[in-house]
Design a protein that fits this description.
The chain has about 400 residues and is mainly α. It has one domain (about 65-405): Na+/H+ antiporter like fold, CATH 1.20.1530.20. The protein is built from 18 helices and no strands. Helix 1 (about 5-35) crosses helix 13, helix 2 runs parallel beside helix 13 (about 275-300) and helix 15 runs antiparallel to helix 16. The chain is globular, with a radius of gyration of 21 Å.
Length: about 400
Protein backbone atom coordinates (compact mmCIF):
# COMPACT_ATOMS: atom_id res chain seq x y z
CA UNK A 1 0.00 0.00 0.00
CA UNK A 2 1.42 3.38 -1.02
CA UNK A 3 1.43 6.25 1.39
CA UNK A 4 1.28 9.94 0.57
CA UNK A 5 4.50 11.97 0.90
CA UNK A 6 2.99 13.72 3.93
CA UNK A 7 2.46 10.41 5.77
CA UNK A 8 5.96 9.21 4.88
CA UNK A 9 7.43 12.48 6.11
CA UNK A 10 5.41 12.25 9.33
CA UNK A 11 6.74 8.72 9.93
CA UNK A 12 10.31 9.87 9.32
CA UNK A 13 9.78 12.71 11.74
CA UNK A 14 8.34 10.40 14.41
CA UNK A 15 11.29 8.05 13.95
CA UNK A 16 13.73 10.96 14.31
CA UNK A 17 12.05 12.29 17.46
CA UNK A 18 11.96 8.79 18.90
CA UNK A 19 15.68 8.27 18.21
CA UNK A 20 16.58 11.60 19.84
CA UNK A 21 14.47 10.91 22.95
CA UNK A 22 15.71 7.32 23.21
CA UNK A 23 19.37 8.27 22.91
CA UNK A 24 18.82 11.22 25.23
CA UNK A 25 17.30 8.96 27.91
CA UNK A 26 20.22 6.53 27.66
CA UNK A 27 22.90 9.21 27.73
CA UNK A 28 21.11 11.00 30.57
CA UNK A 29 21.31 7.78 32.59
CA UNK A 30 25.01 7.47 31.74
CA UNK A 31 25.55 11.10 32.79
CA UNK A 32 24.02 10.32 36.18
CA UNK A 33 26.34 7.33 36.60
CA UNK A 34 29.38 9.41 35.62
CA UNK A 35 28.16 12.36 37.73
CA UNK A 36 28.50 14.89 34.90
CA UNK A 37 25.88 17.40 33.68
CA UNK A 38 23.50 15.69 31.27
CA UNK A 39 23.86 18.45 28.63
CA UNK A 40 27.46 17.29 28.08
CA UNK A 41 26.35 13.76 27.21
CA UNK A 42 23.50 15.05 25.03
CA UNK A 43 25.98 17.19 23.06
CA UNK A 44 28.35 14.24 22.58
CA UNK A 45 25.45 12.00 21.53
CA UNK A 46 24.41 14.58 18.94
CA UNK A 47 27.93 14.74 17.55
CA UNK A 48 27.94 10.93 17.21
CA UNK A 49 24.51 10.84 15.54
CA UNK A 50 25.06 13.83 13.21
CA UNK A 51 26.33 14.09 9.67
CA UNK A 52 29.97 13.73 10.72
CA UNK A 53 29.13 10.56 12.64
CA UNK A 54 26.44 7.96 11.99
CA UNK A 55 24.30 10.34 9.95
CA UNK A 56 21.10 9.33 11.79
CA UNK A 57 20.17 12.88 12.84
CA UNK A 58 20.32 15.29 9.91
CA UNK A 59 18.18 18.31 10.76
CA UNK A 60 19.20 21.45 8.89
CA UNK A 61 19.94 24.56 10.92
CA UNK A 62 17.44 26.67 8.98
CA UNK A 63 14.63 24.06 8.98
CA UNK A 64 11.29 24.78 10.63
CA UNK A 65 11.65 21.78 12.94
CA UNK A 66 15.06 22.90 14.16
CA UNK A 67 13.93 26.47 14.77
CA UNK A 68 10.78 25.33 16.57
CA UNK A 69 12.68 23.04 18.93
CA UNK A 70 15.46 25.56 19.59
CA UNK A 71 13.15 28.53 20.16
CA UNK A 72 10.52 26.82 22.29
CA UNK A 73 13.09 24.63 24.06
CA UNK A 74 15.21 27.64 25.00
CA UNK A 75 12.09 29.52 26.12
CA UNK A 76 10.91 26.71 28.37
CA UNK A 77 14.34 26.20 29.91
CA UNK A 78 14.54 29.96 30.52
CA UNK A 79 11.11 29.85 32.14
CA UNK A 80 12.29 26.98 34.35
CA UNK A 81 15.37 28.97 35.32
CA UNK A 82 13.32 32.05 36.10
CA UNK A 83 10.94 30.01 38.25
CA UNK A 84 13.89 28.76 40.32
CA UNK A 85 15.18 32.30 41.03
CA UNK A 86 14.30 33.81 44.39
CA UNK A 87 13.85 37.59 44.32
CA UNK A 88 14.93 37.96 47.92
CA UNK A 89 18.33 36.58 46.86
CA UNK A 90 18.74 38.80 43.78
CA UNK A 91 17.80 42.05 45.51
CA UNK A 92 21.27 42.20 47.08
CA UNK A 93 23.16 41.58 43.80
CA UNK A 94 21.17 43.55 41.21
CA UNK A 95 23.99 46.08 40.47
CA UNK A 96 26.32 43.19 39.60
CA UNK A 97 23.63 41.52 37.50
CA UNK A 98 22.87 44.73 35.59
CA UNK A 99 26.51 45.46 34.75
CA UNK A 100 27.32 41.83 33.84
CA UNK A 101 24.41 41.72 31.40
CA UNK A 102 25.27 45.03 29.71
CA UNK A 103 28.79 46.38 30.22
CA UNK A 104 30.08 42.83 30.63
CA UNK A 105 28.90 41.87 27.15
CA UNK A 106 30.74 44.86 25.64
CA UNK A 107 33.96 44.05 27.50
CA UNK A 108 33.83 40.41 26.40
CA UNK A 109 33.14 41.36 22.77
CA UNK A 110 36.03 43.84 22.59
CA UNK A 111 38.60 41.49 24.17
CA UNK A 112 37.50 38.67 21.86
CA UNK A 113 37.69 41.03 18.88
CA UNK A 114 41.29 41.99 19.68
CA UNK A 115 42.24 38.30 19.90
CA UNK A 116 40.40 37.48 16.64
CA UNK A 117 42.02 40.36 14.79
CA UNK A 118 45.48 39.21 15.86
CA UNK A 119 45.07 35.41 15.57
CA UNK A 120 42.66 35.14 12.61
CA UNK A 121 43.70 38.34 10.79
CA UNK A 122 40.11 39.60 10.53
CA UNK A 123 39.25 43.26 9.86
CA UNK A 124 38.43 44.76 13.25
CA UNK A 125 34.72 45.33 12.53
CA UNK A 126 34.25 41.64 11.64
CA UNK A 127 36.38 40.62 14.62
CA UNK A 128 34.01 42.71 16.76
CA UNK A 129 31.07 40.99 15.08
CA UNK A 130 32.56 37.65 16.15
CA UNK A 131 33.02 38.95 19.69
CA UNK A 132 29.39 40.10 19.82
CA UNK A 133 28.08 36.73 18.61
CA UNK A 134 29.75 34.72 21.39
CA UNK A 135 29.59 37.36 24.14
CA UNK A 136 26.33 36.19 25.73
CA UNK A 137 26.18 33.17 28.03
CA UNK A 138 23.79 30.26 27.63
CA UNK A 139 20.80 29.74 29.96
CA UNK A 140 19.92 26.45 28.24
CA UNK A 141 23.19 25.04 29.63
CA UNK A 142 23.54 26.92 32.90
CA UNK A 143 20.01 26.38 34.22
CA UNK A 144 20.16 22.55 34.09
CA UNK A 145 23.76 22.53 35.39
CA UNK A 146 22.75 24.50 38.46
CA UNK A 147 19.73 22.26 38.95
CA UNK A 148 22.10 19.31 39.23
CA UNK A 149 24.96 21.07 41.06
CA UNK A 150 23.70 22.79 44.20
CA UNK A 151 25.92 25.88 44.29
CA UNK A 152 25.42 28.67 46.84
CA UNK A 153 22.16 30.42 45.92
CA UNK A 154 23.59 33.95 45.53
CA UNK A 155 26.18 32.77 43.00
CA UNK A 156 24.00 30.31 41.08
CA UNK A 157 21.06 32.68 40.69
CA UNK A 158 23.27 35.61 39.66
CA UNK A 159 24.93 33.55 36.91
CA UNK A 160 21.60 32.08 35.74
CA UNK A 161 19.95 35.50 35.67
CA UNK A 162 22.92 37.01 33.82
CA UNK A 163 22.56 34.32 31.15
CA UNK A 164 18.90 35.18 30.68
CA UNK A 165 19.32 38.93 30.55
CA UNK A 166 22.50 39.22 28.48
CA UNK A 167 21.15 37.39 25.41
CA UNK A 168 19.24 40.58 24.56
CA UNK A 169 22.42 42.64 24.79
CA UNK A 170 24.35 40.08 22.75
CA UNK A 171 21.75 40.01 19.98
CA UNK A 172 21.41 43.82 19.87
CA UNK A 173 25.19 44.28 19.74
CA UNK A 174 25.51 41.63 17.02
CA UNK A 175 23.02 43.29 14.69
CA UNK A 176 24.32 46.78 15.44
CA UNK A 177 27.87 45.74 14.50
CA UNK A 178 26.54 43.80 11.50
CA UNK A 179 24.81 46.91 10.17
CA UNK A 180 28.08 48.82 10.34
CA UNK A 181 30.11 45.93 8.88
CA UNK A 182 27.97 45.47 5.76
CA UNK A 183 27.15 49.14 5.14
CA UNK A 184 30.31 50.86 6.27
CA UNK A 185 28.30 53.22 8.49
CA UNK A 186 29.13 54.58 11.93
CA UNK A 187 28.54 52.67 15.14
CA UNK A 188 26.34 54.75 17.47
CA UNK A 189 26.71 53.83 21.14
CA UNK A 190 23.85 56.08 22.30
CA UNK A 191 21.43 54.78 19.64
CA UNK A 192 22.14 51.15 20.50
CA UNK A 193 21.94 51.75 24.25
CA UNK A 194 18.47 53.26 23.74
CA UNK A 195 17.51 50.21 21.67
CA UNK A 196 18.75 47.93 24.46
CA UNK A 197 16.75 49.80 27.09
CA UNK A 198 13.59 49.65 24.97
CA UNK A 199 13.89 45.93 24.29
CA UNK A 200 14.75 45.15 27.91
CA UNK A 201 11.90 47.24 29.31
CA UNK A 202 9.33 45.68 26.98
CA UNK A 203 10.60 42.21 27.87
CA UNK A 204 10.37 42.93 31.59
CA UNK A 205 6.89 44.43 31.37
CA UNK A 206 5.48 41.74 29.07
CA UNK A 207 6.89 38.89 31.15
CA UNK A 208 5.71 40.44 34.42
CA UNK A 209 2.14 40.97 33.13
CA UNK A 210 1.78 37.43 31.78
CA UNK A 211 3.39 35.97 34.90
CA UNK A 212 0.89 37.79 37.10
CA UNK A 213 -2.05 36.66 34.95
CA UNK A 214 -0.86 33.04 35.02
CA UNK A 215 -0.44 33.15 38.81
CA UNK A 216 -3.91 34.69 39.11
CA UNK A 217 -5.51 31.90 37.06
CA UNK A 218 -3.81 28.99 38.83
CA UNK A 219 -3.20 30.17 42.40
CA UNK A 220 -5.72 32.89 43.41
CA UNK A 221 -8.24 32.15 46.16
CA UNK A 222 -11.23 33.09 43.97
CA UNK A 223 -10.08 33.12 40.34
CA UNK A 224 -7.89 30.00 40.14
CA UNK A 225 -10.35 28.08 37.94
CA UNK A 226 -7.41 26.80 35.85
CA UNK A 227 -5.48 25.37 38.82
CA UNK A 228 -5.82 21.77 37.62
CA UNK A 229 -4.64 22.87 34.15
CA UNK A 230 -1.56 24.66 35.51
CA UNK A 231 0.90 22.67 33.32
CA UNK A 232 -1.06 23.63 30.18
CA UNK A 233 -1.13 27.26 31.35
CA UNK A 234 2.68 27.29 31.64
CA UNK A 235 3.16 26.00 28.07
CA UNK A 236 0.58 28.42 26.67
CA UNK A 237 2.00 31.37 28.62
CA UNK A 238 5.64 30.63 27.71
CA UNK A 239 4.72 30.65 24.01
CA UNK A 240 2.54 33.76 24.44
CA UNK A 241 5.25 35.64 26.36
CA UNK A 242 7.89 34.95 23.72
CA UNK A 243 5.73 35.60 20.66
CA UNK A 244 3.96 38.72 21.93
CA UNK A 245 7.12 40.46 23.10
CA UNK A 246 9.19 39.32 20.11
CA UNK A 247 6.54 40.75 17.77
CA UNK A 248 7.28 44.15 19.33
CA UNK A 249 10.98 43.76 18.37
CA UNK A 250 11.89 43.25 22.02
CA UNK A 251 13.57 40.38 23.86
CA UNK A 252 11.19 37.42 23.97
CA UNK A 253 13.78 35.40 25.90
CA UNK A 254 13.88 38.02 28.63
CA UNK A 255 10.08 38.00 28.76
CA UNK A 256 9.85 34.24 29.40
CA UNK A 257 12.54 34.44 32.08
CA UNK A 258 10.70 37.25 33.89
CA UNK A 259 7.44 35.31 33.45
CA UNK A 260 9.09 32.39 35.24
CA UNK A 261 10.42 34.66 37.98
CA UNK A 262 6.97 36.08 38.69
CA UNK A 263 5.31 32.66 38.70
CA UNK A 264 8.08 31.14 40.81
CA UNK A 265 7.72 33.93 43.37
CA UNK A 266 3.91 34.01 43.34
CA UNK A 267 3.82 33.67 47.12
CA UNK A 268 5.24 37.22 47.35
CA UNK A 269 2.14 38.37 45.42
CA UNK A 270 -0.17 36.62 47.89
CA UNK A 271 -0.92 33.59 45.66
CA UNK A 272 -0.65 30.02 46.89
CA UNK A 273 -1.45 26.64 45.31
CA UNK A 274 -2.38 23.47 47.17
CA UNK A 275 0.53 21.16 47.92
CA UNK A 276 -0.70 18.49 45.49
CA UNK A 277 -1.12 20.95 42.60
CA UNK A 278 2.26 22.55 43.36
CA UNK A 279 4.00 19.16 43.25
CA UNK A 280 2.21 18.21 40.02
CA UNK A 281 3.27 21.48 38.39
CA UNK A 282 6.90 21.15 39.52
CA UNK A 283 7.10 17.57 38.22
CA UNK A 284 5.68 18.64 34.87
CA UNK A 285 8.14 21.54 34.53
CA UNK A 286 11.12 19.31 35.41
CA UNK A 287 10.06 16.64 32.90
CA UNK A 288 9.34 19.11 30.11
CA UNK A 289 12.66 20.90 30.70
CA UNK A 290 14.49 17.57 30.47
CA UNK A 291 12.82 16.78 27.13
CA UNK A 292 13.70 20.24 25.81
CA UNK A 293 17.35 19.83 26.92
CA UNK A 294 17.57 16.52 25.08
CA UNK A 295 16.25 18.00 21.84
CA UNK A 296 18.33 21.19 22.01
CA UNK A 297 21.71 19.66 22.74
CA UNK A 298 21.40 16.55 20.59
CA UNK A 299 20.47 18.81 17.67
CA UNK A 300 23.24 21.30 18.52
CA UNK A 301 25.79 18.49 18.62
CA UNK A 302 24.56 17.01 15.34
CA UNK A 303 25.06 20.36 13.60
CA UNK A 304 28.69 20.97 14.61
CA UNK A 305 30.61 21.62 11.39
CA UNK A 306 33.85 19.68 11.81
CA UNK A 307 35.11 20.75 8.39
CA UNK A 308 35.02 24.39 9.48
CA UNK A 309 36.60 23.52 12.82
CA UNK A 310 39.47 21.78 11.07
CA UNK A 311 39.99 24.64 8.63
CA UNK A 312 40.39 27.31 11.32
CA UNK A 313 41.30 25.04 14.26
CA UNK A 314 44.35 26.72 15.82
CA UNK A 315 43.18 30.27 15.32
CA UNK A 316 39.71 29.47 16.66
CA UNK A 317 41.22 27.64 19.63
CA UNK A 318 43.40 30.63 20.48
CA UNK A 319 40.49 33.06 20.26
CA UNK A 320 38.25 30.90 22.47
CA UNK A 321 41.00 30.44 25.07
CA UNK A 322 41.48 34.23 25.17
CA UNK A 323 37.70 34.58 25.42
CA UNK A 324 37.52 32.12 28.34
CA UNK A 325 40.72 32.89 30.25
CA UNK A 326 41.10 36.65 29.66
CA UNK A 327 37.73 38.00 28.58
CA UNK A 328 35.54 36.33 31.21
CA UNK A 329 37.76 37.14 34.23
CA UNK A 330 38.01 40.75 33.03
CA UNK A 331 34.20 40.92 32.82
CA UNK A 332 33.63 39.43 36.28
CA UNK A 333 36.18 41.55 38.12
CA UNK A 334 35.21 44.76 36.29
CA UNK A 335 31.47 44.28 36.88
CA UNK A 336 31.22 42.45 40.22
CA UNK A 337 34.19 43.64 42.25
CA UNK A 338 32.97 47.28 42.52
CA UNK A 339 29.59 46.12 43.91
CA UNK A 340 30.27 46.46 47.64
CA UNK A 341 26.64 45.78 48.47
CA UNK A 342 26.84 42.21 47.18
CA UNK A 343 29.98 41.50 49.26
CA UNK A 344 31.42 39.05 46.76
CA UNK A 345 34.19 36.87 48.10
CA UNK A 346 37.28 36.12 46.02
CA UNK A 347 36.20 32.47 45.76
CA UNK A 348 32.79 33.46 44.41
CA UNK A 349 34.38 35.71 41.82
CA UNK A 350 36.76 32.92 40.75
CA UNK A 351 33.83 30.55 40.31
CA UNK A 352 31.94 33.07 38.15
CA UNK A 353 35.08 33.57 36.04
CA UNK A 354 34.98 29.91 35.03
CA UNK A 355 31.21 29.46 34.70
CA UNK A 356 29.98 31.01 31.43
CA UNK A 357 28.97 28.32 28.95
CA UNK A 358 28.25 29.22 25.31
CA UNK A 359 25.41 27.47 23.50
CA UNK A 360 22.08 27.97 21.79
CA UNK A 361 21.86 31.77 21.31
CA UNK A 362 25.40 32.26 19.93
CA UNK A 363 24.93 29.14 17.77
CA UNK A 364 21.72 30.57 16.34
CA UNK A 365 23.32 33.98 15.67
CA UNK A 366 26.28 32.36 13.88
CA UNK A 367 23.89 30.26 11.79
CA UNK A 368 21.99 33.39 10.77
CA UNK A 369 25.20 35.09 9.63
CA UNK A 370 26.15 32.06 7.55
CA UNK A 371 22.67 32.00 6.00
CA UNK A 372 22.97 35.72 5.16
CA UNK A 373 26.40 35.06 3.56
CA UNK A 374 28.03 37.79 5.65
CA UNK A 375 31.77 38.18 4.90
CA UNK A 376 33.93 36.02 7.20
CA UNK A 377 30.79 34.25 8.49
CA UNK A 378 32.55 30.89 8.04
CA UNK A 379 35.30 32.03 10.41
CA UNK A 380 32.72 33.34 12.89
CA UNK A 381 30.83 30.04 12.76
CA UNK A 382 34.05 28.08 13.30
CA UNK A 383 34.97 30.05 16.43
CA UNK A 384 31.39 29.78 17.69
CA UNK A 385 31.43 25.98 17.31
CA UNK A 386 34.76 25.88 19.15
CA UNK A 387 33.38 28.07 21.96
CA UNK A 388 30.32 25.85 22.33
CA UNK A 389 32.37 22.66 22.46
CA UNK A 390 35.08 23.91 24.82
CA UNK A 391 32.85 25.73 27.28
CA UNK A 392 30.31 22.92 27.57
CA UNK A 393 32.78 20.03 27.57
CA UNK A 394 35.29 21.73 29.89
CA UNK A 395 33.38 24.17 32.05
CA UNK A 396 30.09 22.31 32.53
CA UNK A 397 31.88 19.08 33.50
CA UNK A 398 34.08 20.81 36.08
CA UNK A 399 31.41 23.00 37.70
CA UNK A 400 30.80 20.68 40.67
CA UNK A 401 34.52 19.98 41.17
CA UNK A 402 35.37 23.69 41.22
CA UNK A 403 32.45 24.55 43.49
CA UNK A 404 33.59 21.88 45.94
CA UNK A 405 37.21 23.07 45.85
CA UNK A 406 36.07 26.64 46.50
CA UNK A 407 33.62 25.52 49.21
CA UNK A 408 30.61 26.95 47.38
CA UNK A 409 28.29 23.92 47.45
CA UNK A 410 25.11 24.20 49.49
CA UNK A 411 25.18 22.15 52.67
Amino acid sequence: MEHSPAILHAKELLFLLGIILGVGTLTGFIARLLKVPDVVMFLLAGMALGGAGLGVVNVKVDSTLNQLLLIFGSCYILFDGGASVRLNVLKSVWPTLLTLATVGVLISAVITAVAAQYLLHLPFIFALLLGAVIASTDPATLVPVFRQVKVRAKVAQTVMSESAFNDAMGAILTFAVLAVAVSGGDFSISKNLISLLQQSLLGLIGGAILGYLAALLIAHDKYSFLAEYAPVVTIMSVAAAYLSVDSLNASGFMAVFVFGMVLGNKDLLGFKMSDSEEIKLEDFILTTSLIMRIFIFVLLGSQVNFALLQQYFWGALGVVLAFMLIGRPAVVFACALPDRRAQWSFKELLFMCWTRETGVIPGALAGMLVGMKVPYSDVIASVTFMAILLTILLQATTTEWLARRLDLLEN
